[in-house]
Amino acid sequence: MKSFSMNERKTFFLNGEEFFSSKRLTLFDIITYFKYNSAILVLEYNNFICPRENWNNIWINHKDKIEIVTIVGGG
To answer: Residue 66 burial (CB < 10 Å; 0-12/13-18/19+)?
Structure first.
């Protein structure tokens, strides 16, 4: 598997939409950048539910797939 330097552009997918970054990002960086409320979401990373305590330790790699589902209450 090829590793990326800080200046190489990576493609990743967030909720099916393609994004590009040349910065090294964690899942937490993505959540913060897109202003998700972390208290009310479920995050799937490459087809696996990712526990909240791991978000700061998982680095985005080329062609990663991230799905974020927000929980909405109502009645």
So the answer is: buried
CA angle 15, 73, 44 (to 5 degrees): 25
User: By C-alpha distance, which of 66, 62, 63, 1 is closest to 29?
Assistant: 66
- Segment 3-51, tens digit of pLDDT: 545 568 899 999 999 999 999 999 999 999 999 998 899 999 999 999 9
* CB-based burial label for 52 (10 Å; 0-12, 13-18, 19+): middle
Residue with tokens 């927000």: 70
Cβ atoms of 6 and 23 within 8 Å: the answer is yes
pTM exceeds 0.90 for this model: no
